[in-house]
């Protein structure tokens, strides 16, 4: 099973490198370990996360895709479905089968057909539309219900600080780091779209 999971993950990585998906980049933490991925999520447009870059890790089990990976944000983020230690709590990453608490249907949980792409699309959707019914961060969920537009303004930073941190990441990345190149391209594209909309929004990094 280890050989099959390794081949499947390498195939997915090659596909993402060949056909990047808007909204995130993905690569390996260590080129010698296909089971440890690093992803960078670009804050969805028209949300309170717009303009932010959020680093996370995906750790895959040796029996993937029978079991889901675990996702953990490295960049601090204040969100109802992200635990205070960064662990992501989302249906698609929950073990397959029945939910003993009755909150989720089996088809909403992990299925072997899911890929890194479908996982990341679900996470991006989660950032735009939090689920406050079964939160991983109860305090964030409470603030979200009371003030949905203000909950993520808890720890503001300037746009300059945000992009300085991102520039440092680009500078430290390897020349062949596809994730850094992709993020740079998407940053330029997103900035141009924002300028065309002529909307000025504060940027927050968590």
From TrEMBL:
Keyword ATP-binding in record: yes
Question: What biological-process terms (Gene Ontology) are attached?
Answer: protein modification by small protein conjugation
Q: Which SMART domains match?
A: UBCc
Catalysed reaction per UniProt? S-ubiquitinyl-[E1 ubiquitin-activating enzyme]-L-cysteine + [E2 ubiquitin-conjugating enzyme]-L-cysteine = [E1 ubiquitin-activating enzyme]-L-cysteine + S-ubiquitinyl-[E2 ubiquitin-conjugating enzyme]-L-cysteine
EC main class here is transferase
Q: Does the keyword ATP-binding apply?
A: yes
Q: Name one GO molecular function term.
A: ATP binding
Keywords carried by this UniProt record: ATP-binding, Nucleotide-binding, Transferase, Ubl conjugation pathway
State one Pfam family annotation.
UQ_con
Which family is annotated? Belongs to the ubiquitin-conjugating enzyme family.
Task of the protein = Accepts ubiquitin from the E1 complex and catalyzes its covalent attachment to other proteins. In vitro catalyzes 'Lys-48'-, as well as 'Lys-63'-linked polyubiquitination. May be involved in degradation of muscle-specific proteins. Mediates polyubiquitination of CYP3A4.
What is the protein's name according to its record? Ubiquitin-conjugating enzyme E2 G1
């Amino acid at each position: 099973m280890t050989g099959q999971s390794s081949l499947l993950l390498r195939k997915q990585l090659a596909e993402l490198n060949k056909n990047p998906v808007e909204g995130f980049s993905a690569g390996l933490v260590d080129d010698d370990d296909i089971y440890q991925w690093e992803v960078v999520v670009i804050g969805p447009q028209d949300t309170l996360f717009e303009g932010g870059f959020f680093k996370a890790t995906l750790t895959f089990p040796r029996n993937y895709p029978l079991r889901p990976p675990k996702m953990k944000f490295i960049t601090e983020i204040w969100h109802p479905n992200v635990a205070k230690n960064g662990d992501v709590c989302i249906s698609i990453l929950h073990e397959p089968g029945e939910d003993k608490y009755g909150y989720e249907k089996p088809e909403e949980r992990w299925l072997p057909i899911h890929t890194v792409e479908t996982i990341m699309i679900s996470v991006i959707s989660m950032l735009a539309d939090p689920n406050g019914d079964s939160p991983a961060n109860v305090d964030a969920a409470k603030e979200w219900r009371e003030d949905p537009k203000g909950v993520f303004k808890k720890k503001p930073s300037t746009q300059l600080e945000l992009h300085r941190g991102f520039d440092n990441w680009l500078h430290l990345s390897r020349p062949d780091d596809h994730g850094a190149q992709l993020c740079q391209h998407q940053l330029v594209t997103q900035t141009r779209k924002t300028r065309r909309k002529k909307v000025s929004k504060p940027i927050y990094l968590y």
